[in-house]
Write a structure and sequence with these properties.
By secondary structure, the chain is an alpha+beta fold. The protein has 2 domains: 99-187, PDZ domain (Pdz3 Domain), CATH 2.30.42; 191-402 and 413-464, 2-enoyl-CoA Hydratase, Chain A, domain 1, CATH 3.90.226.10. The chain has 12 helices and 21 strands. The chain has helices spanning 39-55, 62-75, 86-96, 124-128, 149-156, 212-226, 245-255, 280-283, 315-325, 424-433, 445-455, 463-490, and strands at residues 8-10, 22-26, 82-84, 99-102, 105-110, 113-119, 135-139, 142-143, 163-169, 177-182, 184-187, 191-197, 200-205, 232-236, 261-266, 274-277, 304-308, 330-333, 341-347, 353-362, 378-379. Strands 1, 5, 6, 7, 8, 9 and 10 form a 7-stranded antiparallel beta sheet that branches. Helix 7 (245-255) runs parallel beside helix 9. The longest helix is centred in the last third of the chain and has 28 residues, at 463-490. It starts with 7 loop residues before the first strand and ends in a 5-residue tail after the last helix.
C-alpha cells in the first residue's frame, strides 16, 4: 500500500492539521495518579536530563528539554494526543472558532515534497493560482526536498499580510511555476447551501465549528423560504475532518425527534461516560437560545441523503452514524475515516495545554467507529470512472499507534474491497489528471446519484458493490437451481 498519501495537514491549522478532532474543553486536570509514581524511571529521566546538560556537544536549555519530554510522552499515546505549546494552543482555539492565519491549503507528502491536496475555497492560495496536485519544491527559494511535513508547514506559517513565494512543479508544465502569496487570516465558511434543482436542496458542512449549528439553521430557513415543500435534502459531509462535539449533536438533532440519542462516550473518567441527546443543552451555548427552535417542522420528515467519503472523520461520523442508526437518512458514498475518539483539552498554563484522548464514542446503537468508520448504505464512487483520489487516502486504521476498536477483539476492521491492490498506480495517475471536484457543482457525480435516489431513478453503485451484488444474485440463482433439481428428484415420476 506504498502509494497511499502518508500525511495530510492544513497550513495554519497547527496541531489541528488535517484530521479533525471531536473536542471538549476543560480546566487543568487536578487528579491523583492511577498508581504509585515509577521512581526508578523518574530517576533515569533526571539522570538523562543531567547528562545532556553536562555532556552534550552544545549547551541545551533545560526548559526546552523538559518541554520536548512532555511533548514526546503525550505523542507516544496515539495520533491525536498532543502537547500544545503557546503558538499551537492559540492556533487551535482560533481554528475551532473558524479562523486561522496561513495560506489555506491542505497538503501531504509525496516523494519528499509537499503536495497540495486541495486549496481552501477563497483562500490566498486558491486566489494565487495554486491547484490540487501541485508539488511545492521551494519556499522563498529554499528547497523542500528532505524536510518533514511539520517543518514545511512551519515555513509556510507566519504573520498576517506577510509575503511568501512558492515554487511548484505542475504536471504537463515544462518549467517550475512561481507564485507570490500573501498570508492572511482565513475564515473557513463552515456551512454552504443552495437549491441544486427545483425541490431539492444541498447543505454542505466543511468543518464542525462553534458557529456551525447557528449557521446551518440560518441556511436551512433560507432554503425553505425559497421552497416550503422540499422533496429531498442532501447533507454533504465529504472531506469534513470533524470538529467540536456540540456541532455534531446539533446538526443531528435538527433532523431527529426531540430527545433522540445522538452519541455516547466511554472512557476511564466519570465525565467521559456520557450520553448526548438531541436537546438544546447538548448543542447550544449556555447564554444563547435554541438555534433549532425556529426550523420548519417539515425538516424532521424531508427525505435525507448524507454524502460521506474517506475524508469524513470524527464529528462527521457522529452525524452519519446517528442518522444511519435512527434510519433517518440514506448514507451514500465511500467508507469514512474511522476516527471514533474524543480529545479533551486540558489547560496546563494560561498559554499551554494537552490535547488528550479521553474516550471512544459510540453511535446510538452502540457501534464503535474507532478504526472502522461508517460503511454507507449505498457505496458510490467519487466519479463515474471510479474512486480516484479517495481510494489513496489514509484512514485511521493506517495511522501508527492508532487506538483500537474495543469491539474488534482481534477481528480485522471492516474495509471497502478493491479489485486489485496493484491497481493503485492507475488510480494515482487518474487522481493526478482529473480536475479538482467542485462539491455541489454540475459535475458532482455522487450528488447526482443522491438526486437519482430521491427520484427513484437507478443509482450507479461502485464497481465493487455492483460486482458483489451480481455475485450474490448469481449465487442465489445457482442455489435456487440446485434446490429445484433436488425437488425434481423427489417428485414422483410421471407415467
Amino acid at each position: 500500500m506504498g502509494i497511499k498519501v502518508k500525511s495530510i495537514g492544513l497550513i495554519g491549522l497547527g496541531m489541528l492539521a488535517g484530521i479533525g478532532v471531536s473536542m471538549q474543553f476543560s480546566a487543568v486536570a487536578q487528579k491523583s495518579a492511577g498508581g504509585p509514581l515509577p521512581l526508578e524511571e523518574l530517576r533515569q529521566l533526571s539522570d538523562v536530563f543531567g547528562l545532556i546538560q553536562s555532556d552534550y556537544v552544545e549547551a541545551v536549555e533545560g526548559r526546552k528539554l523538559l518541554t520536548e519530554a512532555i511533548s514526546g510522552m503525550v505523542a507516544s499515546l496515539d495520533p491525536h494526543s498532543v502537547y500544545l505549546d503557546k503558538k499551537a494552543f492559540k492556533e487551535m482555539r482560533e481554528s475551532v472558532q473558524g479562523k486561522f492565519v496561513g495560506l489555506g491549503i491542505e497538503v501531504g507528502m509525496e516523494d519528499g515534497y509537499v503536495k497540495v491536496v486541495a486549496p481552501i475555497e477563497d483562500s490566498p492560495a486558491a486566489k494565487g493560482g495554486i491547484l490540487a496536485g501541485d508539488l511545492i519544491t521551494r519556499i522563498d527559494g529554499a528547497p523542500m526536498k528532505g524536510l518533514s511535513l511539520d517543518e514545511a508547514i512551519k515555513k509556510m506559517r507566519g504573520e498576517p499580510h506577510t509575503k511568501i513565494t512558492l515554487t511548484v512543479s505542475r504536471k504537463n508544465e515544462d518549467k517550475p511555476l512561481v507564485f507570490p502569496i500573501v498570508r492572511e487570516e482565513i475564515r473557513v465558511q463552515s456551512v454552504k447551501a443552495k437549491m441544486v434543482e427545483p425541490g431539492y436542496a444541498w447543505v454542505r458542512i466543511a468543518q464542525f465549528q462553534e458557529p456551525t449549528v447557528d449557521d446551518m439553521a440560518k441556511k436551512i430557513k433560507q432554503l425553505y423560504a425559497q421552497d416550503p415543500h422540499l422533496k429531498g435534502l442532501v447533507l454533504d459531509l465529504r472531506n469534513d475532518p470533524g470538529g467540536v462535539v456540540p456541532g455534531a449533536v446539533g446538526v443531528s438533532a435538527a433532523f431527529l425527534p426531540k430527545d433522540a440519542v445522538i452519541v455516547s462516550t466511554n472512557g476511564q473518567l466519570a465525565d467521559s461516560k456520557q450520553t448526548f441527546y438531541g436537546r438544546r443543552e447538548f448543542y447550544a451555548g449556555r447564554n444563547g437560545g435554541d438555534p433549532l427552535a425556529a426550523l420548519p417542522e417539515a425538516l424532521k420528515r424531508v427525505p435525507l441523503v448524507v454524502l460521506v467519503n474517506t475524508g469524513s472523520a470524527s464529528a462527521s461520523e457522529i452525524v452519519a452514524g446517528a442518522l444511519q442508526d435512527h434510519k433517518r437518512a440514506t448514507i451514500l458514498g465511500t467508507q469514512t475515516f474511522g476516527k471514533g475518539s474524543v480529545q479533551t483539552v486540558r489547560q496546563l498554563t494560561a498559554d499551554t495545554a494537552v490535547k488528550l484522548t479521553t474516550a471512544r464514542y459510540y453511535t446510538p446503537n452502540g457501534r464503535s467507529i474507532q478504526a472502522r468508520g461508517i460503511v454507507p448504505d449505498m457505496m458510490v464512487d467519487e466519479t463515474a470512472d471510479g474512486d480516484g483520489w479517495n481510494s489513496l487516502r489514509v484512514r485511521e486504521a493506517d495511522l501508527q499507534k492508532h487506538l483500537g476498536n474495543d469491539e474488534d477483539k482481534g477481528v480485522a476492521p471492516v474495509v471497502a474491497k478493491h479489485d486489485e491492490l496493484d491497481d493503485e498506480k492507475r488510480l494515482a495517475e487518474l487522481a493526478k489528471k482529473r480536475k479538482p471536484l467542485e462539491y455541489g457543482g454540475k459535475d458532482d457525480f455522487q450528488l447526482t446519484q443522491a438526486l437519482n435516489h430521491f427520484k427513484g431513478l437507478p443509482v450507479k453503485l461502485s464497481k465493487v458493490e455492483a460486482t458483489d451484488k451480481a455475485d450474490a444474485k448469481a449465487e442465489a440463482k445457482a442455489d435456487a437451481k440446485a434446490e429445484s433439481k433436488v425437488d425434481d428428484k423427489k417428485a414422483p415420476a410421471k407415467k
